[in-house]
Design goal:
The chain contains seven helices and seven strands. It is of the alpha/beta class. α3 links the parallel β1 and β2.
Length: about 240
């Protein structure tokens, strides 16, 4: 095992670490939630990571996104992530895709290559497509529900989508997945009612930009990483 995974191996054991090192995990969306999930997976010994995101680092990302720094502003998020992960977890092979995942772009990905899929994207259409692709390929997937407009990371839970409540995004996903015959989906969600954000210059007539913090989406991302590591390592 690598030197940086020795403390993890003390808890998980050698066999689990071997499974993690052999695993290939796809993280769709590397913003506030997905970025923290991706780095935790790399530092935990996952051997291969595919990072999928078409966005660039903006000043408004600095308060919560792990790969967002002043020097990275304007850089593609996946490029900023690859640079940081090369320093933090040099044995992790990172592939990057500057792609906005939607049904129209899903054919770019062979889901049978993955051992696990992390859904940390924002759009309902994209999330549904991800779930269907992963389940059709027989690949485990964990999906992040709403982390914006919330201040209590201690209220996050791991549950099946059909056992969620309160979260508006989870409500929409339950209805849409039921229509498509999806029987189960592991999610990270919160029962905290979302706050109403103050008016913002970024606000448009069609969309209100959600508020967020350094600590709420990061916790959701770390919970996701923990689930993936335990499932792959079978611990």
């Amino acid at each position: 095992m690598s030197e940086y995974t020795t403390r993890t191996e003390l808890l998980l054991g050698n066999e689990a670490m071997q499974r993690l090192q052999s695993a290939r995990v796809a993280v769709f969306g590397i913003g506030g939630v997905g970025g923290h999930a991706a780095e935790a997976l790399a530092r935990s010994g996952v051997g291969q990571l595919d990072l999928i995101d078409n966005d660039t680092v903006a000043p408004s990302n600095l308060n919560r996104q792990l790969f967002a720094t002043r020097s990275a502003i304007g850089m593609d998020k996946v490029d900023a992530a690859r640079i940081r992960l090369a320093e933090a977890a040099p044995d992790c092979k990172v592939r990057t895709f500057k792609t906005f995942f939607m049904p129209e772009t899903q054919e770019q990905f062979d889901f049978t290559q993955y051992d696990y899929v992390v859904d940390a994207i924002d759009t309902v259409t994209g999330k549904i497509a991800l779930v269907l692709c992963a389940q059709q390929a027989g690949v485990p997937i964990i999906s992040s529900m709403g982390a914006g407009n919330k201040l209590h990371p201690e209220l996050f839970e791991v549950a099946d989508i059909y056992k969620t409540s309160v979260c508006p995004l989870a409500r929409v996903m339950r209805a849409e997945l039921k229509k498509r015959g999806v029987k189960r989906l592991k999610v990270v969600y919160s029962k905290e009612p979302p706050m109403r954000p103050a008016p913002s210059d970024e606000q448009t007539n069609r969309r209100t930009v959600p508020g967020s913090t350094a600590f709420t989406p990061s916790v959701a991302g770390l919970i996701i990483a923990a689930e993936v590591v335990r499932d792959i390592g079978r611990v």
